[in-house]
Specification:
The structure is a single chain. By secondary structure, this protein is α+β, with helices and mostly antiparallel strands. It has helices spanning 23-40, 93-109, 123-128; strands at residues 2-6, 9-17, 56-62, 65-75, 78-86, 114-119, 131-133, 138-140, 143-150. The model has no long low-confidence stretch (mean pLDDT 88).
């Protein structure tokens, strides 16, 4: 766990397998995912897809609430990052979350390639982190995405 201080609010970074999450953490993660994907982005899908059980859940917590989140899991011999979100925007949490989560995922799963299905509008964000685009555009839940792979970080 890493503690950060920003604007006098204590942020803590956590990376936990599902079995180590508390009930409150699971609730806050699901609440943040629902807020961002279902309400802000109007994506209509069943978020609870059973993948969570095999994931490493990486998140920043602030005052008991999830401020930024992603999950990492194995898919086709690679580490895949998914459900990437920030609730507390404009604080640089997305970049810091990605950096810490890549490190945590490698510690948890091993030194495997890391991929993400990025929403097209976020492609530049991931490129700044060292990801390269490895596919053309495709639709996922009605939103244009591209596959990307980490080449550095």
């Amino acid at each position: 766990m890493e503690n950060l201080s920003e604007n006098s609010n204590a942020l803590s970074y956590k990376a936990k397998p599902f079995s180590e999450l508390t009930a409150a953490e699971i609730y806050e993660i699901l609440k943040a995912r629902s807020r961002v994907f279902q309400f802000e982005q109007n994506i209509r899908y069943l978020d609870e897809d059973d993948v969570d059980y095999d994931c490493l859940h990486c998140f920043f917590e602030e005052n008991g609430q999830v401020a930024a989140y992603l999950r990492a899991y194995l898919e086709d011999g690679r580490i895949k990052l998914g459900r990437v979100l920030t609730v507390a925007r404009g604080k640089g949490l997305g970049k810091r979350l990605a950096e810490l989560s890549v490190q945590s995922a490698r510690e948890h799963f091993g030194a495997l390639p890391i991929t993400v299905d990025a929403q097209k509008h976020a492609e530049g964000f991931y490129k700044k982190l060292g990801f390269v685009t490895t596919s053309g555009e495709f639709l996922e839940e009605g939103i244009v995405h591209v596959k990307m792979e980490l080449k550095q970080l």
